[in-house]
Amino acid sequence: MSTQHPDNANQPKFVKNPETLRGKDEVYEAFHAYSRLGCDEQMWDIEGKEASRSVVRELLEENPDFFKENKLGKDFRLTARIPNPEYERVEQKVVLEILENIPRSYDAANVFYGDGTAPIYEVILPMTTSSESLERIYHYYKDYVSGKESHTPFDKTIGEWMGEIKPERVNVIPLIEKMEYMLKASDIVRDFLKKKDFKSQRVFLARSDPALNYGLIAAVLINKIALTRLQKLDEEISTNIYPIIGAGSAPFRGNLTPDHINETLEEYPSVQTFTIQSAFKYDYPKERSSKSIEKLKKTLKKPMIPVNEKRSLSLIEKTRNDYRKKISKLENIVNKIAQYSPSRRSRKLHIGLFGYSREVESGNGNIKLPRAITFTASLYSIGIPPEIIGFSALTDKDIEFLSENAYKKLLSDLQDAMQYYNENSLKKYPFLKEDVKKAKEYIDIKTNEEHKKITDQILKQKTDNIKDKIIKAAKIRKFLG
């Protein structure tokens, strides 16, 4: 999530509202990502947002010279993220609308290019829990969208009446977010690929929500086990498996910034695609961001060193239990600060009447927390980097194991995060003392004094100008959450 500095040379000029990307801003943002930053794919996120259904036509009509030279659907991808109809009940039929809209996008591109290139040929299904949920999307499109071309409603087939319906099929990318399903990612994908002649299959592993739900260390280890198992699957079948990881700019959410490209590539060598979020796009000079993106694009997928699954699973259990006990004691302050945390995208709430709640298991039952970005921003805003929560559960041997194999950049991520730690937060939340004490055994905490002054003010919980203070602190960090 970007802080969108008003004095930053990479600030998006197309944003009409200085605080929130909404409506057509996101069409302009897609073109900005393609043309200025060199991203070769844009996720068109329709989950919980009123994103344009005419994005392909708008991109081509408004930027014809660029897209004549750079073909949408070949040189650049546009991949729709749809709601999950099993969980987002009010949004269920939006899925049907999006799938029906794919042939419309094809028609717009075919008029523009004239060669039958499909601009959208994949969709992302969030909260995937089974191969069956992927099959439903895949077969609905194949059987009831493109498949209806040969149906005859009266005297003509739909194809004769409305023209051909292309593409004939779309692939479905599972976005897997919960631990139990991430650990089964290879099984879900294996089942989905049965009796299909795909040359490749992409698999999207969440990074932010696992951190929110289980803590930093558990989130990394869950991803590492999932990647290890997907690599084994890749070696066993003829379809190439290409993992995607949803990294953010805060260390808690991945620490993917222009400053940390090499470390990220070393940590996740088997990942084919990394998500670039708005802090990366807008809080660094364009030249640095585009150069880093170019390096991500040019770096070939490599085999990863498989993690010790037994040891990793034990550490997941230990650290997530400690994290959950402590996070339950921070629920009230997180939700209080979250009310003032700015949103950078016009998004329907995932809580309340028209959505689902984000619940996290804790030592005292389930607790409700905001989305991962807002959660992270809230804790940073009071001088508690969420990366530290649960660190004291680790022994020296655990840290040695992580640093040498399973999570090599653990201590550097912690070092990056702890510059924004405010020791005064311990006066209100003393249960974090052991975490900080353990961290000090391994890193030298160099406090950012400017950030500390702001978080001191927020810690007092006075509501006057609190939103401005949250933004000011975020600008120092170069990310909101």
From TrEMBL:
One of its GO terms (biological process) is tricarboxylic acid cycle. It catalyses: oxaloacetate + phosphate = phosphoenolpyruvate + hydrogencarbonate. Its EC number is 4.1.1.31. Its cofactor is Mg(2+). The keyword Oxidoreductase does not apply. One of its GO terms (molecular function) is magnesium ion binding. The keyword Protease does not apply. InterPro entries: PEP_COase_arc-type, Pyrv/PenolPyrv_kinase-like_dom. It comes from the Archaea. Keywords: Carbon dioxide fixation, Lyase, Magnesium, Pyruvate. Pfam families: PEPcase_2 (PF14010). Catalyzes the irreversible beta-carboxylation of phosphoenolpyruvate (PEP) to form oxaloacetate (OAA), a four-carbon dicarboxylic acid source for the tricarboxylic acid cycle. Belongs to the PEPCase type 2 family. Homotetramer. This is Phosphoenolpyruvate carboxylase. It comes from candidate division MSBL1 archaeon SCGC-AAA382A03. The lineage of its organism: Archaea, Methanobacteriati, Methanobacteriota, candidate division MSBL1. The gene is ppcA.
